[in-house]
Amino acid sequence: MVQDGELMDERNNDFDFDFMPIGQAIKKAREAREMTREQLSGIIGYAPRHIQSIENEGEYPSIELFIQLITMFDVSVDDLKRSILHIIYRETQRSAQPVYCIVDDDIASHTRPSSQALHPIEAAYFHQSHLKGRQDYGHQVVSVMLSCNGITLSYAVRLYDKSKSKIQIVKEIAEELPIVPVVAYFLCDSW
To answer: With 90 as the cut, is the pLDDT of residue 41 above it?
Structure first.
């Protein structure tokens, strides 16, 4: 659909992203440091009312402010993962669409250490990069994304444990997730 000269994605315009759980985690972390909204406002340069809207009304901040807040208050990965689950599971309940858990391996490339390096990067090795068509130096990681009804969010990134089979890795991820309200499918290639 075109509106005011801009192409609009009707599906995304109908989606009500609930930022409330993440806002509440930020509020909890701020209060744990005994910091007022006014004090935070002076540090980050946003009005206390804007901070209140993020924390209590689910208003979503710019990505820059979001990263600044979760970094400043050390909002835990577990809090973020719970928020992602809440968003995806709420969408599956609303739309009755399945949840897709997408599991894929990748290489987090690093500069190859020189022969002079005293402390090479721990757990980094050479891996076959299908994208580059050659060996690449870095960490081999497994990324996990959750998707429902066109909404895809990154859920986790972990080092690839080569002592486990792909089936074991996917099984561990499945056991970590709460029961899905509708139905779930795991999508992974044969890496």
So the answer is: yes
Domain 2-75 has CATH 1.10.260.40: yes
Closest CA to 170 of 156, 154, 153: 156
Maximum CA extent, the chain: 59
Tell whether the model's pLDDT for residue 50 goes beyond 90: yes
Q: Can you read off the two tokens belonging to residue 28? A: 């909890």
Q: Going by C-beta distance under 8 Å and a sequence separation of 6 or more, which residues neighbour residue 120? A: 113
* Inter-axis angle of helices 20-32 and 63-72, nearest 10: 40
Q: Look-up: residue for tokens 């972390």?
A: 29
Per the CB < 8 A criterion, the answer to whether 21 and 75 are in contact is no
CA distance 137 to 51: 42
pLDDT computed for residue 139 by the predictor:
67
User: Strand, helix or coil at 181?
Assistant: coil
Q: What is the pTM of this model?
A: 0.62
Q: What residue ranges do the domains of the chain occupy?
A: 2-75, 98-188
Strands (E), the chain: 2-3, 6-7, 99-109, 125-129, 134-148, 151-159, 184-188
Separation between Cα atoms, residue 139 and residue 110, nearest integer Å: 8
pLDDT of residue 25: 85
- Going through 20-177 in order, the beta strands assigned E by DSSP cover 99-109, 125-129, 134-148, 151-159
